[in-house]
Amino acid sequence: MADFDIPELQEYTVVPKLKEGTMSHSSPFVSKEKFQSALGYPGELVENWEDKLLEKMDDLRGRYRSFQVFLDSCVKCGACTDKCHYYLGTKDPKNMPVARQDLLRKIYRRYRTFAGKFFGALGMPGFVGAADLNKEVLDDWYSYFHQCSQCRRCSVFCPYGIDTAEISMAAREIMDSIGVGQKYCNEIIMKAKTIGNNLGLPEPALADTLEGLEEEVEDDTGVAVKFPLDQKGADILLVTPSADFFAEPHVDGLIGYAKVFHEAGVSWTMSSYASEAANFGMFIGSYENMRTLSLRIRKAALELGVKRIVFGECGHAWRVAYSFLNTLAGPWDFLDQNYPIPQHICEFTYDLIQKDKLKFDKSENDHMTLTFHDSCNVARASRMGDKPGGQLDIPRAVIKAVCNNFVDMPPETIGESTYCCGGGGGLLTDDLMELRVKGAQPRMEAYKSVVENHGVTNIAAICAICKSQFTKVLPYYKFGMTDIVSVHQLVSEAIILTGSEDDVDSDDSNENESE
Amino acid sequence: MASIEVNGKNLDVDEEGYLENLNDWVPEVATVMAKLDDTELTDAHWEVINFLREYYDEYQIAPAVRVLTKAIGKKLGKEKGNSKYLYELFPYGPGKQACKYAGLPKPTGCV
């Protein structure tokens, strides 16, 4: 099945002995000229790249105070060393967060600190944790900054709050600026910028796909649930990852959102112009590209005249939406200020559940025992609802409202300590399959423990990347490909649509309960 | 650039073996690519490959998985209109492996 060794799952995750260089060969395909230029970057490694690299590093130090602080404040305490799923799965010491940071920090120290310049001039930069810049260093950057899923688990444990994700984003932005980009991310950003979504799904194909879903749901339930596209004057704009249109189990989540909107009786629409929630601009640390993509959402909202924006199940999209959208594409003064701007689909559904406006037959999900995988960007970089930890509680509350059987994975593997799925941060590409499989080990061990001890059969998530990653890696660990489900897929299974056969069967006594 | 030999001609393919130039496709491309994966193409494979090509001609994109399973279900019977059947035919994933044989670009994004 694979041309690499698949880790053997332990009862719980054990910190492995170091094995130098186990992943030095891992390196994603390099971007092409046409993708680079579409994003505003040089097509290949520029001449005098060493100077340009330092220039860009200085630019980012000036733009982001956090980046400067992170470069200066590490005291090498070691708290982060065993926190990265890629280190735990690959044993490669360069996948320890501090070592990953130091790939960049040693260059900063060599050329931008007194100690580095002094000892560098004496030919012994290593004495102060500095190093000379050369092609080997750049190759190391390309390899190991594409072995970080920017999940921020290490930053939770760092006493100084150093965020390796920001360092790896900066490193990728620096590399892009000298002409060394990653094919997977940059091709996708080009498509999102020109066509409107990561897949490159043009409007006619999107319309055809949604029409097919309408037929499917009506065949299934007898109720005409709509999947509106580009409907001017709708109240709500749904922005969802394009994987929701394309892949399984994502599409079952999309069907769930549509059923919830239908039962809520709201008018809603999707946009073919802004048909993507994901924003890969964040993965490559590019403010400009992030902004360009976010502005598509603003333009669509204005043109369609919506009053609210709701985001579908997408992890990093929710980080960008919740934390950055106002800066990138605000002000949102034209939207209805009585609702969260933007709102997560889980918040939307949870709100209706709280108000008792949805009816469920939980037994529809009785063939499953669920656990929930907290997606890193939701868990550690955003919020839902109006209480701290809402981003952890609300998805679980939604699951528990529609399922009878739910068990959490061990506490050190969920919540703010959640392990990444292994495919986040722009690494969800076949050329990094070894990394993805090995990086999934800690999550798979946590899953195994609830499968074996509590009879868990399925794992739910609210992130398109997590869903695709698990679909791919679960079989490597002898689990079923379809163990992974969307949270709103569970909602979709249990929800009783007004006027459906289930509704008539189950509910004669409850008529006229409208408030 | 890598290439594959089809009918005595060398056709350019990308790092992952997808055709660089979609107009290069002839049915033998699928046969040659399948052989590289140790797969023998049956009529069942061709049903999928042909549908992918028709859909791509109309929409310039590979069909979403539900569009594909529905079309196959209509043609070959409901019991085959699901992704389990497609994965049996194309173990590396219908979206990717079948697209490759059909000469379509690889689907990108969070899929």
What is the element layout, followed by pairings?
The complex is a heterodimer of chains A (515) and B (111).
Chain A: H1 33-38, H2 49-63, H3 65-73, H4 85-90, H5 97-112, H6 114-121, H7 135-144, H8 153-157, H9 164-177, H10 183-194, H11 203-221, E1 236-239, H12 243-246, H13 250-264, E2 268-269, H14 287-304, E3 308-311, H15 315-329, E4 343-344, H16 345-354, E5 370-372, H17 376-381, H18 390-402, H19 433-439, H20 441-454, E6 458-461, H21 464-473, E7 484-486, H22 487-494, H23 501-506
Parallel strand pairs in A: 1-2, 1-3, 3-4, 5-6, 6-7
Helix pairs in contact in A: 2-3, 2-9, 3-9, 5-6, 5-9, 13-22, 16-18, 18-22
Chain B: E1 3-6, E2 9-12, H1 27-36, H2 43-59, H3 65-76, H4 83-89, H5 94-101
Antiparallel strand pairs in B: 1-2
What does it look like?
The complex is a heterodimer of chains A (515) and B (111). With 515 residues, chain A is mainly alpha-helical. Chain A folds into 2 domains: 156 residues, no CATH class; 257 residues, no CATH class. Chain A has 23 helices and 7 strands. In chain A, the strands form 2 sheets. Chain A has a 4-stranded parallel sheet with strand order 2-1-3-4. In chain A, helix 5 crosses helix 6. The longest helix of chain A is centred in the middle third of the chain and has 19 residues. Chain B has 111 residues and is mainly α. Chain B has one domain: DsrC protein, C-terminal domain (Arc Repressor Mutant, subunit A, Orthogonal Bundle). The longest helix of chain B has 17 residues. The model of chain B has no long low-confidence stretch (mean pLDDT 94). The chains are: A mainly alpha (515), B mainly alpha (111).
